[in-house]
Design a protein that fits this description.
This protein has 390 residues and is of the alpha/beta class. It has two domains: 10-50 and 115-190 and 283-356, 3-Layer(bba) Sandwich (FAD/NAD(P)-binding domain); 81-110 and 191-280, D-Amino Acid Oxidase, Chain A, domain 2. The chain contains eleven helices and 21 strands. It has helices at residues 22-31, 62-68, 71-76, 112-125, 179-183, 251-258, 288-291, 302-305, 315-334, 340-364, 373-379; strands spanning 10-12, 15-18, 37-42, 56-57, 80-81, 85-88, 95-97, 108-109, 129-142, 145-152, 161-167, 169-172, 189-190, 194-201, 212-217, 220-226, 232-239, 277-280, 284-285, 298-300, 306-307. The strands form four sheets. An eight-stranded mixed beta sheet has the order 1-11-10-9-3-2-12-20. Strands 7-6-15-16-17-14-18 form a seven-stranded mixed beta sheet, covered by helices on one side. A three-stranded antiparallel beta sheet has the order 4-8-5, with no helix packed on it. A hairpin with a 5-residue loop joins strand 16 (220-226) and strand 17 (232-239). Helix 9 packs antiparallel against helix 10 (340-364). The longest helix has 25 residues, at 340-364. It starts with 9 loop residues before the first strand and ends in an 11-residue tail after the last helix. It binds flavin-adenine dinucleotide (FAD). Residues 18-24, 40-42, 53-57, 134, 137, 173-175, 177, 179, 196, 279, 281, 302-304, 310, 313-317, 319 line the site of flavin-adenine dinucleotide (FAD). Flavin-adenine dinucleotide binds at residues 18-24, 40-42, 53-57, 134, 137, 173-175, 177, 179, 196, 279, 281, 302-304, 310, 313-317, 319. It comes from Massilia antarctica. Keywords: Monooxygenase, Oxidoreductase. Residues 14-135 form the FAD-binding domain. Pfam families: FAD_binding_3 (PF01494).
């Protein structure tokens, strides 16, 4: 969708955001009442029946959705309320976690495509200009201002169009790829080499199981849960240099390996005709100190700032929360407050420190595979502790 084509002329904005995922769309909507905002996303072919991994949203996100003014719309999208979680983490004895114990409420299992789309629509309705046909971006900083040269797909196969955009504030919300930050010379600090092998399994309507099932394995860890589309997600997180990785891209082998675990043994897809996808999943992101060396007016949010290991199940919350914090920081920056970015980056340092501590505790809680490389890599220096509630 192009709500405002970039054309060939030069345009002036208060804020340009690269990436219209949950973080970028949420930030754009938060800024719009006061500021002229351009939201850029790349051109992508959307396959019929496309699906996206990352469906668990904690109850603590409710207040952020309310602040966005889209909570009612979110509820109307038909996401499923999260049921209990059950884990075989350091032992084969299942440990149950009832979401009623979460003071913020149970949270949801999302229809992820609908969720992302709802945030984008919310931004456009607020008056944000969205261009989601970007093929190439060139970023530069000149005369105290950011310049963005955007090459976009022309409508219906027409020649590409080019637009030049000027703005005092440039935000990288392009996810783990950190497209803007990379182009400006920043490198990603990767915490590990975690990847996720996953499939959306077609299952019988009589599979009424609402629990999130989590199992530690010698190679890594599994989870499985039904999502609102009626399918069941089956996901294995392991290292990219795992010797079994290639073979496990075969649906039969992936399922057979999962079924060795008591909690996953009952998973029975109606057909084996489903693709197994592979995605990078390791935590990591920008070094706040390096970010502070870029010219003023550069910010990063969501996964571009800090991507979480999926065991934390906090990526979407972080996308919404960093959008919220960054909206304040940008408002202050545009009002001339000198340390607005530094204070935002301080907050990000604190978030990362808390996250790394809890992550270490979660992995260190698995001692039964202590000799396996996957677990050794994650437990050096870690201390025992609990599992994040998926
Ligand atoms: C295996 C796995 C499981 C996960 N499970 C969960 C979960 O259960 N719960 C949870 O909360 N989180 C989960 N996450 C994390 C969650 O999906 C992310 O944290 C969230 O999507 C981050 O949102 P974002 O907007 O920062 O980035 P993204 O969602 O990645 O959006 C980035 C946007 O930027 C655009 N973009 C990229 N490059 C460019 C470019 N060059 N030019 C223009 N646009 C660009 C993309 O098209 C996209 O629209 C999981 C992640 C993985 C890998």
């Amino acid at each position: 969708m192009i709500t405002q084509p970039p054309g060939r002329s030069t345009a002036q904005w208060d804020v340009v955001i690269v990436g219209a995922g949950p973080a970028g769309a949420a930030l754009a909507r938060r800024l719009r009442p006061r500021h002229r905002v351009l939201l850029l996303d790349r051109a992508r072919a959307r396959a019929a029946g496309a699906s996206r991994i990352g469906e668990s949203l904690p109850g603590a996100a409710r207040v952020l959705l309310q602040r966005q003014g889209i909570y009612e719309r979110f509820l109307a999208q038909g996401h499923a309320v999260r049921g209990a979680s059950v884990a075989q983490w350091d032992s084969d004895t299942p440990a149950w976690f009832d979401p009623i114990r979460d003071p913020h409420g149970a949270g949801w299992h999302l229809d992820r495509l609908l969720f992302d789309l709802g945030l984008r629509d919310g931004a456009v309705e607020a008056g944000v200009s969205l261009v989601d046909t970007v093929r190439r971006l060139a970023l530069s900083h000149e005369g105290g201002c950011w310049r963005i040269d955007a090459e976009c797909l022309g409508p219906g196969g027409a020649a590409p169009s080019r637009g030049v955009h000027h703005t005092p504030v440039l935000v990288d919300a392009s996810g783990r790829g950190m497209a803007a930050a990379r182009q400006l010379g920043l490198a990603r600090r990767g915490h590990d080499r975690l990847v996720c092998l996953y499939a959306h399994l077609p299952v019988d309507a009589d599979d009424k199981d609402q629990a999130t099932r989590l199992c530690a394995d010698a190679n890594g860890w599994w989870y499985s849960v039904r999502v609102p589309s009626g399918q069941r997600v089956l996901a294995l997180h392991l290292d990219s240099d795992d010797a079994e990785l290639k073979a496990l891209r075969d649906p039969e082998r992936l399922l057979a390996k999962a079924q060795r675990h008591g909690l996953l043994a009952g998973i029975r897809p109606t057909t084996m005709d489903f693709p197994v996808h592979l995605r990078p999943a390791g935590g990591g992101g920008l070094d706040p100190a390096a970010t502070a060396t870029l010219p003023d007016g550069f910010f990063a949010i969501g996964d571009a700032m800090l991507a979480f290991d999926p065991i934390a199940s906090q990526g979407l919350f972080n996308a919404l929360a960093t959008a919220d914090s960054c909206a304040h920081a940008i408002g202050r920056y545009l009002d001339g407050v000198g340390n607005a970015r530094e204070r935002y980056l301080e907050e990000m340092r604190a978030v990362e420190a808390r996250y790394c501590q809890r992550l270490g505790e979660t992995y260190a809680a698995v001692t039964r595979y202590a000799r396996e490389r996957f677990w050794q890599r994650r437990t050096a220096g870690g201390a025992g502790g609990g599992v994040f509630a998926l």
